[in-house]
Write a structure and sequence with these properties.
two-stranded antiparallel ribbon; 17% strand; alpha+beta; 5 strands; single chain
Length: 195
Amino acid sequence: MKLIKKLGTRLSESGHLVSWGLYQCPNPICNKQVERPLSDGKKCKSCGCQQGNRIHNESRTKLYRVWIAMKQRILNPNCEAYKDYGGRGITICQEWANSYIKFRDWALENGYADKLTLDRIFNDNDYEPSNCQWIPNKENAQKTRRTILTLKLVNEIRDLWNMGIYTIKELAEIYSINKNYIGKLIRNERWRNDA
C-alpha cells in the first residue's frame, strides 16, 4: 500500500512501541485510507478489500459480479463505461461502496433474481436504495441513453397523446421507451434520448 504520512509511535497491544502510518489502498475500486503499523503497511497489497470475497464466499455469484461492475463504472476512470457513470457525477452510497454484504442484503430484500438487472429509477441520480430496483434486462435496455428517436416518431407520439386515447404508460409500452422520457417528449422538454 502507498504510505500517505507517518503518524508517529504508539504502544501495541503487547506493550511495544510501534511506528504507525496512514496508507492508501492501491485498489482503484476501493482507495480507502487505513492506519497500519509501518512494518505491516509495506507488506500489504490492499486494505483488506481484496480478501473481502473470502468472508462471504460469493465471489463467483452473479450478484457479486453486479456489485463489482457497478463499482467499476462509478469509481474506476480506466473502465470504459466510467464516462457515462462516474465521469458524469453518478456515485454510490457509502453503505454499498464499502460493503458487498449490505448491497446483497438490500438486493435480496428488494426482489433480486439472476434474470433481472440493476436499474437506477432516475438515470441522473445515484446508486442508492431509494433510487434502485431490479427489472428485466429488456426494460432496462429501453432506458439507455443510446435509444434514438426520429422527429417523425416524436411527433407521432405527441399526436397520439394529444388525441387523448393513450396514457403515458401505454405509449411507453408501444414505443418501448421509458415512461418518464415519454412525459418529457409530451411536454416538449426533449425530442432525442440524450438524458
